[in-house]
Design goal:
Layout (H helix, E strand, L loop, with lengths): L11 H11 L1 H12 L4 E5 L14 H6 L5 H7 L12 E5 L4 E8 L18 H21 L5 H6 L2 H15 L7 E10 L9 H16 L8 E7 L3
Length: about 230
């Protein structure tokens, strides 16, 4: 079952993600940037499927991941509540070993995504979900960071933090040990019909992000930064 974000994007990262994933020349260029010479199969967003985006625990994705039943799915995703985030794009190599989970952005403000946790008066279920998310994000932070501040995973960059958390837990899962999961941060440069951002602005912004989140400039293993210039 696909989620409610189906349909063509009208502007910003959603529009351009759909374009590069479905235009033959752009897709080939993006494939090379992500995986070198390995050919990729694109799962989403596909024009023929109304640009559906997916969460990893949806039925279609469980089939692609070869997660064979509900018990196995519960074990694989035990680090996160059942309500997962959806991915802007998903592609896999033809040998089924490398999965590319894509987060697309068209301007700087899209990267700043604060979230409030453990809000007084929340339902018990909401509080339990918050506790699980915080526990898992903290484990990922401890494994990936060399400084930085865990508070920034919550208060400034929650969306990126949960993407890193998924990458960390999927890559350590004993059920998925024959697979590798890559986070691709696809940043569109010079989106002149919305909020144009230069490559330099993106690069400086990510330097600040990594310093805030993990205390070092190099991106974590299995994370890729791609800058796609829309003027070229």
């Amino acid at each position: 079952m696909s989620n409610t974000s189906n349909g063509p994007g009208e502007k910003g990262s959603k529009k351009w993600m759909q374009f590069v994933a479905n235009d033959e020349a752009c897709q080939k260029q993006l494939n090379r940037a992500m995986s070198g010479k390995q050919e990729l199969i694109w799962i989403s967003p596909r024009a023929g499927e109304n640009y559906a985006e997916y969460k990893l625990n949806q039925e279609k994705m469980l089939e692609w991941l070869n997660i064979i039943d509900k018990d196995m799915a519960n074990e694989v995703f035990s680090f996160w509540p059942k309500q997962q985030s959806q991915w802007d794009g998903i592609a896999v190599t033809k040998d089924w070993k490398d999965y590319y989970l894509i987060e697309a952005k068209a301007h700087l403000s899209e990267v700043n995504t604060p979230r409030k946790f453990l809000v007084p008066g929340s339902s018990q279920g909401k509080l339990e979900n918050d506790e699980l998310i915080l526990k898992s994000m903290k484990e990922a932070y401890d494994a990936l960071s060399d400084g930085g501040d865990f508070e920034n995973w919550k208060s400034k960059y929650y969306q990126l933090a949960n993407r890193l958390t998924f990458m960390y837990f999927l890559n350590k899962s004993p059920f998925l040990k024959d697979k590798r999961f890559h986070i691709v941060l696809l940043n569109f440069v010079n989106d002149l019909d919305y909020k144009p951002t230069s490559k330099t602005e993106w690069e400086e912004h990510y330097k600040d992000i990594w310093a805030d989140m993990i205390g070092k400039a190099p991106v974590p293993e299995y994370v890729q930064l791609i800058y796609w210039d829309l003027k070229e």
